[in-house]
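Hi R.,

Here's the chain you asked about this morning:
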Amino acid sequence: MRQVINKILFMVMLTISISGCDDFLTEVNPNAISTDNFWKNLRDCESGMIAVYNQLRNPSIVELVPESLRADLAWPGYGRPNATNEFYLQTFTDGSKPGNNKWSELYKGIFRANQVIKGLEGIEDQMNTEEDKAKWVLLMAEARFFRGLFHFYAHSSFNQGQVVIFDFVPQSEKEFYQTVSPSEQVIEFFRKDFEFAHQHLPLTRTGFNGEGVPLDPQMLGRVSKGTVGAILGTSYLYEKDYVNAARYFKEVIDSGVYRLAHVGENSTTKGEFNEESILEISYDLNFKLEETVYSSKGTKSIYAMLISQVGGWRSLIPSCWLIMAYKNDALDPNDSRNLIVYTEIDPETGEEVQKTRLRDYSLRTSYSIALPDDRDLIYYGASPTVIRAQFSNLECAYFRKYSNWDIAQSEADLNNQSGINFRLMRLADVYLMYAEALIKGGTDESGVEEAIRYINRVRNRSALTLLGDTKDINFPQSTIDNINYDAMKLMEHLMYVERPLELALDGYAIRQLDLRRWGITKQRFQELSEITYTVDNFNYIDEQGENKVRYNCVIKEGYNPDYPNINLIDYTQAAANYNEDSHDYFPIPNIEKASNPNIFNPK
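And the predicted structure, written out as tokens:
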């Protein structure tokens, strides 16, 4: 940690790189400024706060590919059936690079936040006007929120929650050598930061005009009381404190600030900072053009390059069970959003005839993954998706989320750089967590009816069949599945259908953390390793009107004895290798153990 963070002790401004902050760099030479003389006014503290926000951009914090592979969401790239990825195989160690990088970048964020806090404390007595005092409080609340958030993420990811607490800026090498604190102390620490931010941040930083247009675009992305409430609720849910979790989630829901957006606007450039967004990481192709996608000073993302098959690396593709779950996502046949109007030539008259059919797959499915037989949504300028995607090597689907399928012909058109914001928290997640809190993880029957209402809000947004054996008064025309859910059955639906299909790839390691907190990771891998899938060919007509075939790309459950090489089984090695003590959390990284003699021993 010390080696990674040492630089920012001397100059936080060296790493400020967010859109709109260049003006902060034109007045002085930042290399001549030390932390002792930099923090002179609110403008300096605002500059430092920008650097804190910017730290969230670092891809090593989210670690999208390793965290998805650690869970049950994905296969590690192309080349089935053999996998070598250490996270998919559950063989990672304290020397694994993603774990080391995540630790380093989280603590870099903590140190940046601490510098802003210290700077604000140093100028508090200069706040002579009400306007300055109010801005000082806002900046302090933001800084403490992010210090809490980075500690919360570290607690969620490392060493059973026993991680290092930093509430100060080290002034000497010796002060870097801190020991880990018990999990309970870490929770108490970050919750105090969250509570301060929750008390002092406004309900919204921008608001909308009722038509989805922000009232103050300059404040888009700044954290608010709603942001903090959602994260606080999550922290309580993770500890199975359902009462407090429900309290904070309901406050966010009842605030009137957020509402569900179109399902297709939560993972593309089109719907950035929409009314469903609670916390998202901002990226942009139009700023810092001189910086590459790999630069910590840049404003571009690598996620599309990692995900896409069209011009990208496809470093992860959906796992077999997830593809099947999306294929079986039950669309409502009575919802007009699921009707496709098309024209066909009458073979007898030669005239065009207008016809109607149901969508091939649900809206949620189409906007989440690309399937070879999905005709209803363009994919890099073509429909069906099979025209643009190869679907070779037993690859039966690709993630559509966080790829530029809607604005490019290929990721190569954008030089493999993406400006899509990454969604860390949105209202649908809050609805589903609130539903889980209402039924207390499947143990409280009294909350079932209300929980179903919130799950159905998420499902109705995607024109899906709703849950329950009675009509939902909010959606009286919708089709219901006529199932009588008790608390446990509803919890199973949340675990194996609603949360993974709605939130795949979103958030901070949501699926991995969900599986762990439910205590089902080992069981999940074991169950999935016992399911066999096989594949069929797909015949289609290309853009030139020629008949073509994609071989072995339409997945189905079952075994083909005639062609054993096209049968697929996921997670066999994960089921054998997974160990709660070793793989529930990342271990403390070896770089920290090597550099910090006190990491496990109090001074």
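The chain has a mean pLDDT of 91.

Let me know if you need anything else.
M.
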